[in-house]
Amino acid sequence: MDTPEMVALELPQFDLRDFVQRVLAEDLGTGGDVTSKATIGAEQRFVAEMNCREPIVVAGIHLAIAFFRALDREVRIEKRVQDGDKVEGGTVLLKLEGNARAMLAAERSALNTLQHLSGIATLTRRYVETIEGTGAVLLDTRKTIPGLRLLEKYAARMGGAQNHRMRMDDGLLIKDNHVGVAGDVAEAVRRAKAYDSGLQIQVEVDRIAQIEPALEAGAERFLLDNMEPDTLREAVALVAGRVPLEASGGVNLDTIRAIAETGVDYISVGRITQSAPAVDIGLDYVLTA
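-> C-alpha cells emitted (289 positions)
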C-alpha cells in the first residue's frame, strides 16, 4: 500500500521505498548509529522540531517524513508546511516525537534531502519572481545530479518552474553536435521529420541565419542558444509567433529579466538544479517537562 508520503510526492516513476533504503544504508553502514547506541537507552523518547533558519521554499517535506517513518513506524509527526510553501526563517516545518535512537539515525538523511531539494526550490522561485509579468516561462534542464533527476525536477516544479524533457526519449532536441554530424541544420531537421517519432522537433540555433532553413525543413520549436537580448528580439520578430522560442545559455539572475523582456516564450536555466546551494534547516531537541 502506498504511504501518504508516496501519494503526496506525485512522482509515479519514483520508488520512494528504494530511495529511502539506499540513503539510510549509505549513512548507517552495517553497524548503525553507534553513537546513539552508546549514549541513549533503547526505549528513550525524542521530541524535536525541524525548522528552517533562513527564508526558503519548501521541497521534499514528505521525503523527510519517510526517513523517520522508515526507522520508527510509530513516530508521531505534525507537518506544519507543504511542498511549494514560501516560509520565513524560524518557521517550524515538522514536529516529531518518537524513539530517540531511530529519530537520530534518520536525522541526517532527512535533513540532507530536504536541504538540497528546498535549495533548488528556493533558487527557482527567485528566478520565477524575477521574470514575473513578462509572460516568459522558466524551464529546468537535464543538468542534474546523476540518480536524483526526478527529485531535482520535482523541486524545480515546487519553485514554480516547468519541467523540460525528463529524459532523452521524451523530447527531440537537435543540438549543435547533431547539426555538425548531419551536415547542416536543415538536413538534421529533415532527418528528424523522416524518423517520425511523434515528438515535437526542437532545434538549437546560435545564429539568426539558421532559423528560416530550419523552419522550412519542419522545425516546431527553437532553442536560441547564448544570444544577446538584441539578437533574441530579432529572432522573435523573424519567427513572429510561428513556433515557440526558448532562450538558453549562461542565464543568471542578473540577466534573465532582460532576456524575458525580449518576447521569448521560455527560458531554460541549468543553474537552478546544477548550482543551487542547500538551505539551512535543523532538527532541534525540545526539552519536555
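The chain has two domains: 4-128+276-285, 162-268.
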